[in-house]
Amino acid sequence: MAVQPAAEPHPDMARVKGGADALDRLEARLGLTFADRARLQRALTHSSLKRSPTDASYERLEFLGDRVLGLVIAQKLFETHPKSDEGDLSLRLNTLVSAQTCAAIADEIGLAEFIRHGSDLKRAAAGKNRSIRADVVESLIATIYLEHGLETARAFVLKRWAPHLEGPQVARRDPKTELQEWAHKRAGAPPVYELLDRSGPDHEPVFTVRASVEGVEPTEGKGASKRVAEQRAAEAILLREGVWTAETA
């Protein structure tokens, strides 16, 4: 029988960080072990690494982890804020499950070094992209839930989120929503957003938006999407006009 030559390593494998040694280190960092190593590896895999239709990324796990995280945090807020109404609880929940908070948890764990991604992402992109880091935290929560059950997943979330739960809560509305209400009270009309510029390459665009409220000097905001730029422009007005303070923005 002819011996088949060894397959050449796929060029993306130089960027794969989810080998057995890496998974061992992640388990040690989490204080948990996983019998289903393939699922744990999938939880760390960005869709850019897919080399065939059968390859899987963390996206399905992220979907489940988002719901588990929301349930755990919602119950915790329900128990610890008995006098808060539904609106206040929702604001607190939105802050605690936001991409910003999830990415901060990822950074505290050091997850960036374990994220697996393909050649169409820059080498450092996965570690720097807040959305990817947040997604991996949620997919990891789903992996813990599926392997160890809800109580272990709950313990993981409450431990990692404890400083955010116990620290000062930045429970505030979306800046566009806040500005719209303020503008109606002040001017009787909603704010107007104008796209001023779109620059940068397609994979890293920068949008510049102007927010205007009648009788108030306009402000500008920049962001990787038009929505983010609008939010930052709205936030700039809220800060300048004293509706928000730097501590709550």
Automatic annotation (TrEMBL):
Mg(2+) binds at E62, D135, E138. One of its GO terms (biological process) is mRNA processing. The active site is at D66, E138. PROSITE patterns: DS_RBD, RNASE_3_1, RNASE_3_2. It is found in: Cytoplasm. Its cofactor is Mg(2+). Its main location: cytoplasm. It catalyses: Endonucleolytic cleavage to 5'-phosphomonoester. One of its GO terms (molecular function) is double-stranded RNA binding. Homodimer. This is Ribonuclease 3. It comes from Aureimonas phyllosphaerae. The gene is rnc.
